[in-house]
Specification:
alpha/beta, 14 strands, His_PPase_superfam, single chain, hydrolase, 32% helix, globular, 334 residues, bis(5'-nucleosyl)-tetraphosphatase (asymmetrical) activity, Nucleoside Triphosphate Pyrophosphohydrolase
Length: 334
């Protein structure tokens, strides 16, 4: 389950009853700067003769970020890395059976990192356009909300971001049934499934650095992604529960190092450790921007109530070190 980030508001609901079925979909607004001009990419669907953002329905068991990246590549041939979330689009329509349904589409900003650009899946044209041209070409008023957000973030100097992902290890075998050193306690079958499920999510945000508690349950949570992406796992004793009891500052130092590096990173630790890290991050909420209050609130709520096992909390950060500011947060629960 995904809890959309602060600042991602809903579009018009269309007056549909709450009992109408909801179709979940995801997409992205790829952007670039060309000769100093901000441009965005949109797609043309000949079946509907309309211009819109690349998007599509979630597959069974798929998370929104994974679906957004997959749909962009399937429709445009472009591989993208997701940036900060954009406003949620929620609207009603009449399906093929003549019944009213609701659709919820979650969007992200995105930057192109590869791909052939070959057109696929019923798309006959991809257009990179300056903002004013894109605003005029969009066929649906609801799609302009995402474009306005892109423009607003660009104006705030907060369109270019990098992700810092806090991960609580997935479900492990019960403590009371484990007779060996607790640091060696492995994931159970459910936890192993979650470790596999987060692989496409970390890939969607382009995570390139993995830092984890040296405890087996944390290492095994990130190991499938490390193997898939060809990355090294940085095992840190300071992120273990045992070291945290002796010296909480060691865990904070690992967090500060991640902020100093400023590269897309995931940091995996334990339930008792993460609240302090979340509190440290809350002071980086960009309070000078409209979304800042919600960012701080989300981080402090996660610190107070705790993160779920296997949860990913994605902080979208601008700047590095002392200049680092968190402009959006999203939580992805099992």
């Amino acid at each position: 389950m995904t809890v959309q980030a602060p600042g991602a508001g809903a579009g018009a609901g269309g007056g549909v009853g709450a009992d109408a079925p909801i179709i979940a979909a995801a997409g992205a607004v790829p952007w670039r700067r060309r000769r100093g001009t901000l441009e965005v990419a949109m797609v043309h669907r000949p079946a509907y003769d309309d211009w819109a953002w690349a998007k599509g329905k979630l597959d069974a068991g798929e998370d929104w970020p994974s679906a957004a990246v997959r749909e962009v590549e399937e429709e445009t041939g472009l591989q993208v890395r997701l940036g900060r979330p954009l406003p949620l689009s929620s609207y009603s329509f009449v399906d093929r059976r003549g019944e009213v349904a609701r659709k919820q589409v979650r969007y992200w900003t995105a930057e192109v990192v590869g791909g052939s650009g070959d057109l696929l899946n019923e798309i006959d044209e991809v257009a990179w356009l300056p903002v004013s041209d894109a605003m005029a070409r969009l066929d649906y008023a609801r799609d302009r909300e995402q474009l306005r957000a892109v423009v607003r973030y660009a104006g705030q100097g907060a369109l270019t971001t990098w992700p810092l992902v806090l991960v609580r290890h997935a479900k492990a075998r019960p403590r009371n049934r484990w007779r060996e050193d607790d640091r060696l306690r492995p994931l159970d079958a459910r936890g192993e499934g979650r470790a596999q499920a987060i692989v496409p999510m970390l890939a969607a945000f382009g995570v390139t650095r993995l830092v984890t508690s040296s405890s087996t349950r944390c290492v095994d949570t990130l190991a499938p992604y490390a193997s898939s992406a060809g990355l090294e796992l940085k095992r840190k004793e300071g992120l273990t529960e045992e070291a945290f009891v002796e010296d909480p500052d060691r865990a904070v130092k690992h967090l500060l190092k991640a902020l100093q590096r400023g590269v897309p990173a995931a940091l995996c630790s334990h339930g008792p450790v993460l609240p302090l890290l979340l509190e440290e991050l809350s002071v980086l909420g960009s309070v000078d921007q409209p979304e800042g209050e919600a960012v701080v609130s989300t981080l402090l709520e996660a610190a107070d109530l705790g993160m779920a096992k296997g949860e990913l909390l994605v902080c979208h950060v601008t700047g590095t070190g002392e200049a680092a500011r968190i402009v959006a947060v999203e939580r992805h629960l099992p």
